Automatic annotation (TrEMBL):
Taxonomic superkingdom: Bacteria
Protein name: ABC transporter ATP-binding protein
Higher taxonomy: Bacteria, Bacillati, Actinomycetota, Actinomycetes, Propionibacteriales
Domain ABC transporter span(s) in chain numbering: 4-236
Residues of the full protein shown: 369 to 604 of 604
Organism this protein belongs to: Nocardioides bigeumensis
């Protein structure tokens, strides 16, 4: 069984106003992601990328079709089950992930948050684990006592990545992981993602407008248009 299978997934938004058209969302999207593989998702604004990502993340239930993780159906709404066996294994990274977190907490607490949720080790070991995670993303230990506003864009994105890695996920769902960064820093974050994919046998789904990002970390790409998608190989 593949790591993730998206099988004929349709998600239709209900119109909230009478003059809104129905049928927006995504239609019959299918793809298969094997372990340690990497898929890009591209397409113009409004084509359905975020809708698909929310379905994969288990945040909304498809109107039709199924999402399978190791062959098991991902059932949005069953938060207890998702928290126990899905969310720790499928982590999200998005642009400005750290900016969205509590600005009063320090980097060490932001990274340790998922440990409190998902890690079975005794709490005394969390500090060591935080330092290990910082090291994994090439950040110095001293950053543990910084607050989010003291970080550069590249550092913040690495902290977001360290936080996502805290639960030892199998799949990273990245939504525009480099788009908020200076061009000069993007390459570093992409190198890091590539290295982590190799070292941790991660699978990656990466939504991005950044051609360089898709080309450097993905093997295949799901090209979306008007809610539909087709998979294309990326010339190696
Ligand atoms: P993308 O992430 O590629 O920009 P989205 O998934 O956000 O695309 O949107 C896909 C389509 O669904 C668009 O036509 C958008 O207007 C519509 N849509 C997105 N979110 C909602 C919502 N909450 N209510 C109604 N329509 C929505
Ligand atoms: P910033 O934090 O300034 O936004 P980065 O975190 O990407 O940018 O990088 C900070 C500095 O560390 C840069 O000068 C870069 O050259 C260096 N650097 C980043 N990643 C690596 C790496 N994998 N190996 C060696 N040096 C690196």
């Amino acid at each position: 069984t593949p790591l993730l299978e998206v099988r004929d997934v349709t998600f239709t938004y209900r119109p909230t106003r009478r003059d809104q058209a129905t049928g927006q969302g995504i239609h019959d999207v299918s793809f298969v992601l094997e372990a340690n593989a990497s898929l890009g998702i591209v397409g113009p604004s409004g084509c359905g990328k975020s809708t698909l990502a929310r379905c994969i993340a288990g945040l909304q239930e498809p109107s039709r079709g199924q999402i399978l993780f190791h062959g098991d159906r991902v059932a949005a709404g069953d938060d207890e089950r998702l928290r126990a066996s899905y969310w720790p294994r499928v982590q999200m990274v998005w642009q400005d992930v750290v900016g969205a977190l509590n600005p009063r907490r320090r980097v060490r607490d932001l990274i340790a948050e998922p440990l409190h949720l998902y890690d079975r080790r005794p709490q005394e070991q969390f500090e060591d684990r935080v330092l290990e995670l910082l090291d994994m993303v090439n950040l110095p230990a001293a950053l543990a006592s910084y607050h989010p506003h003291e970080l550069s864009g590249g550092q913040a994105q690495r902290v977001g990545l360290a936080r996502a890695l805290a639960s030892d996920p199998e799949l990273l769902l990245c939504d525009e992981p480099t788009s908020a960064l200076d061009v000069s820093v993007r390459g570093h974050v992409l190198n890091l993602l590539r290295r982590l994919r190799e070292e941790l046998s991660l699978s990656i789904i990466c939504i991005s407008h950044d051609q360089q990002a898709i080309a450097s970390i993905c093997d295949e790409v799901l090209v979306m248009e008007n809610g539909r998608g087709r998979v294309e190989a990326l010339g190696a």
